[in-house]
Each structure stands twice: as structure tokens, then as C-alpha cells.
User: Fold Putative redox protein from Undibacterium pigrum.
Amino acid sequence: MEATVRWTGSSGMSFLAETGSGHAVLMDGAPDGGGRNLAPRPMEMVLLGTGGCSAYDVVLILRKGKQDIRGCDVKLTAERADTEPKVFTKINFHFVVRGRQLKPNLVERAIKLSHEKYCSASIMLAKTAEMTHSFEIIEDLDLPSEHQAAG
Assistant:
């Protein structure tokens, strides 16, 4: 895996990050640190990446378990140390999983597998942060299930 982060050279603290897979994202600092609040902060990107990594796992595990999953949101709430280095000290993942007749034990299992085995980002951050998880399931009654639509 490769990435390049380039300071935009402006008078502020904006950086253009380019991934090895060919994608780009802008990052900026807080105004009190010389930034202009034009883009996410680097540590926000770490939190976003962790949420994406875990949500990806949960969806994949539930699909492999033949669950009719229609949506997965994860809200992350984090606290950081007061002094440098300001590492994450607490992170809560609250999953809102939407689907048809999802089994709570399988949703809970998918979240647990993500955080204990598959999500490299959350496993890495668990070295400094207390990780907590919660979830809710929303029954999706609007559309026919994939199995009915295919049949």
C-alpha cells in the first residue's frame, strides 16, 4: 500500500493526499493551527477510515451469512488525550443496520468479528483507545427482499 501527502504550498495548512489506488482527498488543519477548515482534519480521516473498515466487514460478514442487509451506518464518537501525542483514548462504534429479518445474534457476531479479527484499523487503534460497540436493527419493510425479487 502506498500514499503520497503533499502540502499544497498555500499560506494555510492544507494537504492533498493521493492513494496508491488513484484517489485523492484534501485535508486541512483547524484555524487555530494555521488551517482554514476547508477539509477534514487528518485525525478525522483516521476515524473515518476506521468506521469504513469496520462497516465494510460487517456488511460482508452479514452478506456471507445470507442475511438480507439493506443498509449499514456507523456513528463513531471518540475522545482524545489532552496532551501530545493526542491519541484516541475512547472510541464508540454505534451501528445502525437495516434489512429484512436480520438476526440480532448474527449482527452482534459480525461486529465482534470485525473488531477482534478483521478490521486492521480498529485493532490498531485499540492499542491506545478503549473500544465500545453498540447496534440497533431497523426492519426494512419498503422493498421486497432480494430473494423475492430474484424469484
In short: The first strand starts at residue 3 and ends at 7. Confidence is low (pLDDT under 50) at residues 147-151.
